[in-house]
Amino acid sequence: MLVQRTMHNERMIDRRLNVLRVVAACGTVTAAAEALKFSPSAVSAQLRSLAGELGVPLLAQDGRGVRLTESAQTLLARAAELYTLWEEIRGELGDTDPDQIRSLRLCGFSTAASALLPYVVAKVRDVHPQCTVRIIEADPEECFELLLAQQADLAVVVATAALPPRTDTRFDQQSLLEDPLDLLVPAEHALVGRGSVLLSEAAREPWIMDRPGRTHHGLVLTACANAGFTPSVAHESSEWDTAAALVGAGLGVALIPRLARIPAGDRIARVPLGGDPTPARHVLTAVRRGSRRQPAIATALAALADVARLRATKPLPEKET
């Protein structure tokens, strides 16, 4: 029981330090409050309290907003070291009594939440039957906010330019799998039946795209730009089943990740893409730095590696009928 109390006692490190870290990550007090599930006034009060005890200003007025002072930046750098050490200690304590691990919170983008994380939940429950596992569906950027706010323990994300760099000392990011993008076309399309096609062969097609600002929209734009064209957007859809229905109706083509599940019965076909590089999503795992050895997290990471290997060898269905 001592291990359980120690591992779940969030007051072992002054939680006001984490409030400061989340404000720095989110950019505003309001956004940090949402991530932490606090009120903005509570966030401001905790930072004022911390600044008063330290005797240095942490926030400075910057127009209508605030910015972190040099003292706050120094504190954040040292706090990163402190939190890494604390996560490592929690891992060592968990090794001594893994049966006391009571909860694990997983977060990930929609495809990961449906195609990868259910397997992970089953594996963690098998190894740690006393552990409650929760899945949170979230966009990649939000996943990192959840990790930092200690609202999640492990994230599965698609690599984008907006994410923290791999060198960010707050997180431990590792490659998980390459998720190829397939061209989704009507079942009777001329490209169906070929072993693979170049994305440029669809340059003159009407395109069904995700909405601007969404991760997949940027991914498709980049893939098409690398193939030498800008897609002509005919329709916008943020759901795979909607995009599949539009493609099946002959309204355009789309790029869809290999991991994405699409409904049968829409008279559509996946066509694998060739080229160098082959268009793909790069999927990563992320945890708070130092936490990788914690028993439940270690089990979940191993399960993700297993399911990634299984997915890599899964055959591609040519048609959905």
Automatic annotation (TrEMBL):
One of its GO terms (molecular function) is DNA binding. The keyword Ribosomal protein does not apply. Pfam families: HTH_1 (PF00126), LysR_substrate (PF03466). It comes from the Bacteria. One of its GO terms (cellular component) is protein-DNA complex. Residues 15-69 form the HTH lysR-type domain. SUPFAM superfamilies: Periplasmic binding protein-like II, Winged helix' DNA-binding domain. The keyword DNA-binding applies. Keywords: DNA-binding, Transcription, Transcription regulation. InterPro entries: LysR_HTH_N, LysR_subst-bd, WH-like_DNA-bd_sf, WH_DNA-bd_sf. Belongs to the LysR transcriptional regulatory family. This is DNA-binding transcriptional LysR family regulator.
